Amino acid sequence: MTLPFSLLDLAPIAEGASLADALENSRQLAVQAEGSGYHRIWLAEHHAMHGVASSATAVVLGHIAAATKSIRIGSGGVMLPNHSPLVIAEQFGTLATLFPGRVDLGLGRAPGTDMATAQALRRNLNSDVDSYPEDIRELQHYLAAPQDGKGIVAVPGANTHIPLWLLGSSLYSAQLAAKFGLPYSFASHFAPDQLFDAINIYRSTFQASTQCDKAYVMAGVMVVVADTDEEATYLFTSVQQQFMNMRRGVNRPFARPVHDLSQICTAADQAMLSHILRYAVVGSPNTVAQKLNQFIQATQVDELIVSMPIHDIQARLKSAEMLAKTGLMSI
Predict the structure, then answer these.
(1) Domain 5-324 belongs to what architecture?
(2) Is cis: bond before 35, omega within 30 of 0?
(3) pLDDT tens for residues 291-308?
(4) What are the DSSP E strand ranges found in 10-168?
(5) What is the reported pTM?
(6) Average pLDDT over residues 244-255
(7) Where are any strands of DSSP class E within 144-292?
(8) 85 within 8 A of 139, measured Cβ to Cβ
(9) Is the backbone of residue 100 left (phi > 0), alpha (psi -120 to 50) or beta?
(10) d(Cα 68, Cα 54) in Å, to the nearest integer?
(11) What is the DSSP code (8-state) at residue 81?
């Protein structure tokens, strides 16, 4: 079974490297993704994280779009409660004007940071996620054809009709995507628990819209491909350390891999990693192809979005290339 594969670039700031290195790595990954036939490449909004460089998501998307020619670029996602819908319409309307036919706007409702930083973003100190559905409608209005004499116009933004996606890790996001008739991407790469329930709810309650006449599901999976299972397992210890650090409240750059994770991993850590990263696919090309095919068959997703949490950029680029050659991707 083949289907579109896309990449979620987490713009990692690797231990021992700089912010500039991280942004250059994102550029290289986008070029690699386009050359290997990936359908789209997305970046996510995070703030005040020492290991993530994509806080100014629209700016980074412009950086990678300028380095590529045809691959779709987008947010996976922009955290809409952090922003005025008008500002997002203007930012992504600018991207869509500069790179027509290539821009996606994926939306989430989490803050993408700690509460103190969320407050410092200062969109509206009285706002909360309860206004999320209304914010989506407002954003759709700004991106649609303007109506004479009827309110504020986003310039750029109006009449760009940028496709919206709803992202989430809960049943709420699935219900909302179905109600709004929007494509839905589930964050199973870090929040696996409600994957199948969310997909079922989304598909069974989907209402057609002007953007989508039928349900369209994407799911996120972490993938590390290397020449051998052992090498891939070694490379995967970077993201395992990242989740351990997050659990302990430690904010650090993206860690170098280690040969023996058990030396720094407690039994509680191991239980947490096994649970959260249950859908991670790590190994040689044959191992990865077999496990990914099982995931695709089980979920019947329409598209897969893959993050490759690898410290070394050359190993990350090689992983993306090797995955593309497994024969699972439709190009």
Answers:
(1) Alpha-Beta Barrel (3.20)
(2) no
(3) 999 999 999 999 999 999
(4) 40-43, 72-79, 103-108, 164-168
(5) 0.94
(6) 94
(7) 164-168, 184-186, 217-225, 281-283
(8) yes
(9) beta
(10) 18
(11) G
